């Protein structure tokens, strides 16, 4: 770490020029969090840093690799050069977390984490949600050698899906989940995910930002994907669900396929309204065609008895998805809201100001795979605003 407290209680940073003389003149350093004694290490090759005793029990101490220290310092200097209000190794007592960098904007507080080690999804999720619980957004930056790509396709590990940044809360389809990769000394790559391909890959737009010119805000602005490109990206996955292999066999996959078969629907003939990319898919391990088909087939029958539904009232669905998708209920609620608003964009439902929905057209199921894919194509055009007003046709009302 770069920060420490002196015997007399002054907290200093090795990256702050104004502290240099004071650091030279003092020999005793303590951790600002656990108060343990620290050692100042001045390697010839490595940046100077403070280190805990190897047997420390400090919650904030992790053996920091050289590149973690170096990347953190470079990103800090970049933000400083733009006059950003940024704190290095900021400790947040409310959530007992230490952010690599903590940025305060007019509208938000942002923790920037330079994640060099491989972690699991659960850890990323827990830390993200802890930050969000105290009103802090988090942006994960990974080292460049974590980036696996081929053209516009990015290959993702489970924890990287979770690290894809997007503001939580109200459904906002314009916010693409984004991943950031730092290539020292000065290239920050942004991968803006705009379509799901499988649990291991996604379609993304890549931008290489050469620091220090771009601002943090610029780096976080998603790129605009041309509509025709977006349409084919969305249809790549839909084509796979109709003509390709079945979704990977998981307990949830078996459960959904059994439920569908009870309604005489093989998975290839799933409703055309299901299997689309929503930004919140990054939270979910299971294929979108599975959870959306299931949810869609749960929702539509409600309209036989009532004229509108409220997403808040889908209690049974929420609980069930929470268990099957291993997702906190609050996140499932966001996911369901997002899906209902998505159906409104398809003009299947009409969404109202109070988050209730009415049915605009009675959906029909495809009778054949080809017909299903034709329906998918019409929806994709509609989503990408390529002008299409023909209602999808199919066999029987659900
Ligand atoms: Zn400590």
Distance between the termini: 60 Å
The level of helicity is 25-40%
Bound compounds: zinc ion
Order of helices and strands: EEHEEEHEEEHEEEHEEEHHHHEHHEEH
Mean pLDDT: 91
Strand segment tally: 17
Q: What's the oligomerization state?
A: single chain
CATH fold assignment of the largest domain: Trna Endonuclease, Chain: A, domain 1
Strand order of the largest sheet: 6-7-8-9-12-13-14-11-10
Q: State the domain count.
A: 3
Tally of DSSP helical segments: 11
Strand content: 15-25%
Low-confidence stretches: 388-398
Protein name: Competence protein CoiA
InterPro entries: CoiA-like_N, CoiA_C, CoiA_nuc, Competence-induced_CoiA
Report on this model:
Residues 23-60 form the Competence protein CoiA-like N-terminal domain. This is Competence protein CoiA. With 398 residues, this protein is of the alpha+beta class. It has three domains: 1-60, no CATH class; 64-225, Trna Endonuclease, Chain: A, domain 1, CATH 3.40.1350; 230-383, no CATH class. The protein contains eleven helices and 17 strands. It has helices spanning 20-25, 66-81, 121-133, 158-163, 216-220, 227-243, 251-262, 288-299, 315-324, 329-345, 369-383; strands at residues 3-6, 11-13, 29-30, 37-41, 49-51, 85-92, 97-104, 109-114, 136-143, 148-150, 153-155, 178-183, 187-198, 201-210, 308-310, 349-351, 356-359. A hairpin with a 4-residue loop joins strand 16 (349-351) and strand 17. The longest helix has 17 residues, at 227-243. It is elongated.
